[in-house]
Amino acid sequence: MDYIRQFDIRLEKEMYYPGESLLGHVILHTVENFKLKAIRVIMRGKAEAEWKVIVSGDRRTVKDEQTFIDDRNIIWGKEGETSILPRGHHSFPFRFQLPESCLPCSFEAKACTIRYFVRVTMDIPYASPPQGVKYFTIIGPHIDCMDEQYLKPLVGRDRRSICCFCCRQGVVSMKALLERSAYCCGESIRLKADIDNQSDEIVRLKLKLVQHVGFVIERGVLGLNKENVHTVLEYHGDDVPPNQKFRFDSKDSLVVPIMPPTLVGLCKLLQIYYVLKVWIELEKSGEDLHINFPITIATCPFRIPNSNKQPNIDYDVCCDHVEGGMYIGPEFQLGQVYDGSLGVEDGENIVLYRPVYVCVRRSHQLATNTNTTTTTTTSSTNNVKNPQQQQQQQQSSSISNNELIANNNCEPGPSNRYHN
């Protein structure tokens, strides 16, 4: 419509927590007077799942959805009446109250999306109503690392006797302690492990944080489901020679990248959970020792009790090797359309919207720790990496030969190998 020069939706901020008030304005610039029934605003949040299946040889698309928020308001005009909107620049405020209940976080994947948006519709008589949509991010659900259930340490043990035919050749044992089970993105997973290799072969400690994402569509009696599994980060330890012991302390090496929080029981279409897998790889026999720890990705970081120092909270997009960061909807990509902005003429895509997640910024602290350990370390290096090998390996100084105490007051320390 030629008489509408500007039609824009502006929100007070781009991300919200459940229970907050969403404030915004509809900006309208017209060059003519025209008839207008009403300006309607809808706030909606819903999950949509969709993928293709093969049924009796035919390829079909299955869909399902779930609505979390559906609120609407009229910010100009009255129902059933037509008025004249004068030409000029207009700003119409609107306000919505987000529900206090736990809302699932905004999420983007090819098989399922959780999106929250504001839609504005101008009801013009005898004309197609102009519409505008503005997406925003919900930070949720509320998961606090300081909850008692997450502060309890988790301990796992495993041992295996190494045999050759009928002859016993030694025992390999492992004890692992996870200081707490909930972490916010940007925090370091605090894991300690003791390995006692009394066999005649070389063993090696390995760690892997795995993301499990389940998609469900309620169709028929059993429904349809699919699961995607992605490696978030990995650690490959050094060789532990025969008849030696090895002590590992993750300290600041296992930093959780930015990714969606744990999402269980809030959305019928989507479940997200994480598992930390700890195992010992035996070089000759090929047998492994395994310990799995459930990891909760939280939205409220750990705070030191009775301390004035608070974590530096920030928000950023998900890393691109896990679900939540691997997919960008085509409706959010402007494509190679030149609109006068720099960079578009070079063939770069403009992304209009991506959800963000809570993270703890520790760049200054990590830089200081790295400089300190580089000049003092004499122990072997810890090989920590994600699938893109973007995390640098870090080193740590030696510790005493004291036994590992399985409680929440364990002093942090580096890896160390010691003899009987």
Automatic annotation (TrEMBL):
Instruction: Tell me the Gene3D superfamilies matching this sequence.
Output: 2.60.40.640
Q: Which family does it belong to?
A: Belongs to the arrestin family.
Show the ranges annotated as biased composition (Polar residues): 399-410
Signal peptide (UniProt feature, chain positions): none
Q: Which organism is it from?
A: Blomia tropicalis (Mite)
The Arrestin C-terminal-like domain covers 1-145, 168-302
Gene Ontology cellular component list: cytoplasm
UniProt cross-references to InterPro entries, sorted A to Z: Arrestin-like_C, Arrestin-like_N, Arrestin_C-like, Arrestin_domain-protein, Ig_E-set
Q: Name one Pfam family in it.
A: Arrestin_N
UniProt-listed SUPFAM superfamilies: E set domains (SSF81296)
GO biological processes? protein transport
Q: Where is the composition biased (Low complexity)?
A: 370-398
Residues of the region (Disordered) are 370-420
For this entry, the protein name equals: Arrestin C-terminal-like domain-containing protein
